[in-house]
Amino acid sequence: MDFIRTGYSPGVTFEKVRKIEGKENIESMFSSYTIDESKLKGYAEWLFFPKNEEEIVTVVQEMEKRGVPITISAARTGIVGGCVPFGGAILSLEKLNAILGLGFDEKTKQWYVRSQPGVSLKELNEKVIQKKFPELEEKQKELLDKFSQDEKTYWYPVDPTEKTAHLGGTVATNASGSLSYKYGATRKWVRKVRLVLANGEILDIPRGKYHASPEGTFTIQNTAGETKTFSIPYYRIGTNVKNAAGLFTEPSMDLIDLFIGSEGILGVITEVEVWITEKPENVIAVTTFFPTEMDAASFVNDIRLKDSSLKTEFLEYLCPDSLKLLRKKQISDPPLVNMPPIPKNVAAIIFEISYNEDSLPELYERLETIAIKNNSSMDQTWACYEDREIDRITAFRHLLPETVNAIIAERKQKNPTIHKLGTDMAVPIIPETNLAGILSFYREKLRESNLEHVIFGHIGDNHLHINILPKDEKELAKAKELYKVFAKKAVSLGGTVSAEHGIGKIKKEYFNIMFDEDKRRQIIEVKQALDPTGLFSIGNMVNI
Amino acid sequence: MKIIVCIKQVPAGEVKINPETGTLIREGVQSILNPFCEYALDEAIRIKKEQEERGGEEVEVIVLTMGPPQARSALLRCLELGADRAILLCDRKFAGADTLATSLALSEAIQKFEEDFTLIFTGKQAIDGDTAQVGPELAEHLGIPQITYVTSTNLIPERRRIQVERETENGYEIVECKLPALVSVSSGSNILRIPSFKEIINARRKVIKNVIADDLSKDTSRFGLSGSPTQVAKIFPPKSRTGGQKIESDDPEAAVSRLIEFLQENVFVDKE
Asked: What φ, ψ does residue A492 adopt, rounded to 5°?
């Protein structure tokens, strides 16, 4: 069905909504609401803390009337300035922080959770893993009992590293992370979204109900009976590439997917339902070392493409320069690194795979064969399966970007204008030659540029982060040029300029490499159909 | 040469106690190898490797524990970290043992199965019970010398002696004693080793021998609860240390004067 009706919400009186007025008041006491993890700093004249959907409706209607744009704000853990306002109002959804219900889909035999957008991934997962929902005990006792009696452990398998991120924010950005290699990004887990549109009306979209017409249109009817038909974008993004750039589209797409990853430009999410799934009982995290980068790349291809029964949770990469940096840190501060001595002149792949005791030897043999073929061995690995050890490996992986940030912070003291440049491109995993191809390309260009750098990240998705560490303005300028060269290369291979960070306000220059004027126009047309006055999250993704 | 390492499985993280029964809450708590036991094992493995390198006598490291079936996983961890084989004393008749009954069972297992040992290592104490009694009692049962709170060892196989450095209230002592002996280890590397995948697989091919009470003695009443004279009056988790007070300031002079103020207020130093 390509026809959907919006619902009515009476709203409340504007005075009832908790708000902070005035740029100075916001700056003096609530300045953290005008910045995110990208450190892009904005400003706003209004800051709202609605407690429920009715209050959101009121704010939307009032700001629409006054011609004040609204920037939607969740936990502000993003790194592209998506929630950073440049004037207007901030709509913080942090008070909508209740888990509303647990559900069991009899058709698919799957559990799901209904939640307000301001619940953090950490809280959601703690409750799901421990099966403890005190807030639901009265109204859903029977179902909670059924859930507790289910022997399996469940979780919500989206981990964008920042566990303080709010569920609503992760839906709006289609957040992903290392686990997306196996479980996919947020999109796959969203069962339902409920939104407030710019006209103050409600759109309730369960997955599977509303699909674009064969002509690629949707028709929305408001409560006054007026209808509006709009076209979904007709550009195509490769299906085998992890992507967070642009609005999602595909032939006869599900309407829900238009809103997931839309960076807040189409509406305000007030409620979501997400599937939860079985958490593997035992996982082993193995750090494997390779004499060359190409051996590591070939190992990754063998694991993900040659043996379909080897389903790793993730495959992460640390280049020789990354390990060199960490080794230096290990010498100066061994407890911080908290690892056995890091070998010299090697690249590393860290992967996690679920196992059971009985099949472990067989799993080992298959992995060993692949490792030996790629000039590595299981002798020189770090293998962790106890929780506390897996935490060590996770901390070790995260230590690299932290170390890079610390180096940049130190350099900033001398040159305040410089900053780190972190890429977020991904290329399709097929053809198989893409990984080695893009790695060699990065290598060659980085060597020519002579810029200090590390390459690391989600190699399982051909999604490697290059962090360039400029020493001065001149190097920063050179790095920015190189960034564009990399972006063009990724796009030429059918890849993306942003696999997980999104576009927000600070990656538009690269977005434009991937999305030419015509493609951007297709996005703008959707935006104008749903938000004709340009109310929501102006400046994200496209310029209106 | 046989080196026996006695180990214990303990709950990871903070110990919680059921206020009604006065027993440890183990439900939902992961179990780990007691850190002091890991130091003890590391010391044994170090000696084994040292002997290998210098072409000395071959060393076999045997890990031993008494505990419920799940204690097997702590033994497995030791095998992954380089121990050669393991023994698990596991029987309902061992349950409820105090330190005396525990050390008795361990000593009888050693006498029965590994009588020709050269050295026994234990951790200085387990981080759950904190008694530090099982090691010394084990040495007494076996009638061998013991050196406690050891921080480093030097085996002198040709003289059948061991030289160690041990902690005391005031510093360190160097002590030497004849073998066989028991050494309780109190410190080790704060960076725990991580086994390789190969070591993890190899460990699963090593032997963990199961021993029941009847294997050790006809009179099993000396084991477990019935062999335990200790009555626990009260059990409580130690208060965790607070972080203390931190004086932070960009201005060193201001920080120092605040420190002086604090010391004067608490009469650590005289005013003026």
From this structure: -65, -25
Residue A233 near residue A40, CB atoms below 8 Å: no
Percent of chain A with pLDDT over 70: 100
Which tens digits make up the pLDDT trace of B146-195? 999 999 999 999 999 999 999 999 999 999 999 999 999 999 988 999 99
Distance from CA of A389 to the nearest CA of B (A): 8
Q: What is the pLDDT of residues B215-267, one digit of tens each?
A: 999 999 999 999 999 887 777 777 777 778 888 888 888 889 889 888 888 87
- What residue in A sits closest to B202 (Cα-Cα)? A361
At residue A72, φ and ψ (nearest 5 deg) are: -85, 135
A388 contacts chain B (CB < 8 A): yes
For B2-227, CATH gives 3.40.50.620
Strand partners, A125: none
For each of the domains in chain A, give its residue range(s) and CATH number, in order of start: 3-95+525-530 (3.30.43.10), 99-278 (3.30.465.10), 283-492 (3.40.462.40)
Quick: pLDDT tens for A83-122: 999 999 999 999 999 999 999 999 999 999 999 999 999 9
- Say how many CA atoms lie within 13 Å of A183 toward its Cβ: 26
Candidates A286, A289, A339, A381, partner chain B, best to mutate (most B CBs within 10 A): A381
CA B163 to chain centre: 20
Q: What residues of chain A, 221 to 240, have a C-beta less than 8 Å from chain B?
A: none
Q: Is the dihedral of CA A140, A143, A145, A150 positive or negative?
A: negative
Neighbours of A266 (CB within 10 A): 22
Q: Which residues are within 8 A (CB) of A276 and not within 5 positions of it... i.e. 6 or more apart?
A: A110, A111, A112, A113, A128, A154, A155, A156
Residue A261, by phi and psi: left (phi above 0), alpha (psi -120 to 50) or beta? left
Q: Give helix A387-414 / helix A320-332 axis angle, nearest 10°.
A: 90
pLDDT confidence bin for B26, thresholds 50/70/90: low
Residue with tokens 């036991």: B37
The position carrying tokens 């799957």 is A110
The predicted structure's pLDDT at residue B240: 75
**What string of DSSP letters covers B2-57?**
EEEEE--EEESSS--B-TTT--B--TT--EEE-HHHHHHHHHHHHHHHHHHHTT--
Nearest-Cα residue of chain B relative to residue A377: B198
Is B197 in Cβ contact with A335 (below 8 Å)?
no
What are the tokens at A399?
A: 């230590």
* CB A368, CB A288: distance < 8 Å: no
Q: Pick A383's closest partner by Cβ from B12, B32, B197.
A: B197
Half-sphere exposure at residue A123, Cβ-oriented, CA atoms within 13 angstroms: 16
Distance CA B145, CA A101 (A): 64
Range list of β-strands (E), A49-189: 70-73, 89-92, 99-105, 110-115, 154-155
Partner residue opposite A389 with nearest CB, options B194, B196, B201: B194
Interface pTM, i.e. ipTM:
0.88
Nearest to A335 among B77, B190, B194 (CB): B190
What's the pLDDT at B264?
Answer: 87
Give the integer Cα–Cα distance in Å for B116 and B119: 9
A-chain residue closest to B205, CA distance: A361
Determine, for residues B32 and A364 on separate chains, whether the beta-carbon distance falls below 8 Å.
no
